């Protein structure tokens, strides 16, 4: 839950409040990310990150479809549907999900195993499905706001590309095509979403809902890294059935 | 609710059972449709039909997005998303909703009024939203089956084009572009959906659910015509606030 608003914000103030949430809560501040980017993780730990993050990637089109299913604003639907096309692929072109599987394959994980999500941490799946469910249950202005973590994504993608290329022998430029592509897509998406939220969240209740939605979404991302850290860094308690780098899936 | 199944059907038997439901329950059998096609309606009654039917058209992309939001089958999502593009319009091209507004405009209804749904019958809106809600709450095999009224649509569209052209001076070829376009789209959509249902509904419970879903969808269409008949034909009780041909909206 975000700080309680006591008065309606101007669109500019609302943007500042949203950016402040990102500065405080976006998952680039999580210790797992520092380990990931600095080269401090083993191959097994990077594999665990990539296969868990796949669950999030795979859920994105369902989340975006849930948003479209909730809005009678045809302009919003026509803008938003390109996210489904980008991520699922369209017209014979591969999508973001395929590009993520390039990464997991290159890390030595079979796509069947990754797609099955058998090795994912339960906490990952809970967080991801909580996000899809949140979007299915809230009106568009709130759910558009929940996507605004994209505002903060380009920095982390740039950091990830350079950090991972530099620090891991098993990472090369071709496997990071997902992040390269998102460097182009995310700012366009984020700009539209920010503009939509600034224009449509005008009452105190709507603005509070928008800020809470972004906090919620930051929590969805943060919780995934908490779970990874606990399972694969410290204390290192891998839940039953989850991916174990010491006992790779056959 | 469909007749109770007592044993699992083969895919061919399932198709026959689905087609039997259409033969008994599709809205081409409704008295309002006979009046519409035979030229027995006044301009005001045709206006009432077109503006109420707009509510259904406008809800279709939300229904299709709800289906996509419920499925983890990426192939199904990639096939289904073209319905949203067809209907909402995509890449600068107009969609089915625009083509419906060509019809309502040509009947003398302002698009702002039609889009506002202010003049729609409450029973229309309830039926349409029941459909969107049904799709949001059921798994893909059931919701795909609910779209199978498309199997029966080409005949009614052909009948509508020829009957309305022949029988109403206020209808010309250019305003029926919606139905012409659907003659091409519906069979492709229906073929995919029928194939999907035949391959995925394998248990008694799934097959019963599929048959019930098609009955439900036929009811959604039928209820809309019942409401039109009651309000604008007999007994002619127009609910408060609904479109009144005697007192056209300003």
Automatic annotation (TrEMBL), chains A, B:
<dbReference type="InterPro" id="IPR011845">
    <property type="entry name" value="PqqC"/>
</dbReference>
<feature type="domain" description="Thiaminase-2/PQQC">
    <location>
        <begin position="16"/>
        <end position="226"/>
    </location>
</feature>
<protein>
    <recommendedName>
        <fullName>Pyrroloquinoline-quinone synthase</fullName>
        <ecNumber>1.3.3.11</ecNumber>
    </recommendedName>
</protein>
<keyword id="KW-0560">Oxidoreductase</keyword>
<dbReference type="Pfam" id="PF03070">
    <property type="entry name" value="TENA_THI-4"/>
</dbReference>
<dbReference type="InterPro" id="IPR004305">
    <property type="entry name" value="Thiaminase-2/PQQC"/>
</dbReference>
<comment type="function">
    <text>Ring cyclization and eight-electron oxidation of 3a-(2-amino-2-carboxyethyl)-4,5-dioxo-4,5,6,7,8,9-hexahydroquinoline-7,9-dicarboxylic-acid to PQQ.</text>
</comment>
<comment type="similarity">
    <text>Belongs to the PqqC family.</text>
</comment>
<dbReference type="InterPro" id="IPR016084">
    <property type="entry name" value="Haem_Oase-like_multi-hlx"/>
</dbReference>
<comment type="pathway">
    <text>Cofactor biosynthesis; pyrroloquinoline quinone biosynthesis.</text>
</comment>
<dbReference type="InterPro" id="IPR039068">
    <property type="entry name" value="PqqC-like"/>
</dbReference>
<keyword id="KW-0884">PQQ biosynthesis</keyword>
């Amino acid at each position: 839950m975000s700080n309680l608003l006591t008065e309606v914000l101007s669109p500019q103030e609302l943007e500042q409040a949203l950016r402040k949430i990102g500065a405080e809560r976006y998952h680039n501040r999580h210790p797992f990310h520092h380990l990931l980017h600095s080269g401090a993780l083993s191959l097994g730990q990077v594999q665990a990150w990539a296969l868990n993050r796949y669950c999030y990637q795979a859920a994105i089109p369902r989340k975006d479809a849930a948003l479209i299913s909730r809005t009678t604003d045809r302009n919003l639907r026509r803008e938003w549907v390109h996210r489904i096309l980008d991520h699922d692929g369209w017209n014979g072109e591969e999508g973001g999900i395929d590009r993520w599987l390039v990464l997991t394959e290159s890390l030595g994980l079979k796509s069947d195993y990754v797609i099955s999500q058998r090795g994912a941490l339960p906490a990952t799946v809970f967080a991801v499905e909580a996000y899809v469910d949140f979007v299915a249950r809230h009106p568009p202005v709130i759910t558009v706001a929940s996507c605004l973590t994209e505002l903060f994504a380009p920095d982390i993608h740039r950091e990830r590309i350079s950090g991972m290329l530099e620090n891991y022998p098993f990472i090369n430029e071709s496997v990071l095509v997902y992040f390269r592509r998102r460097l182009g897509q995310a700012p366009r998406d984020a700009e539209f979403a920010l503009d939509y939220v600034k224009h449509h969240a005008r009452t105190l209740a709507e603005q509070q809902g928008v800020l809470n939605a972004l906090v919620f979404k930051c929590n969805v991302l943060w919780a995934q890294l908490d779970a990874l850290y606990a399972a694969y860094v410290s204390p290192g308690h891998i839940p039953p059935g989850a991916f174990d780098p010491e006992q790779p899936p056959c």
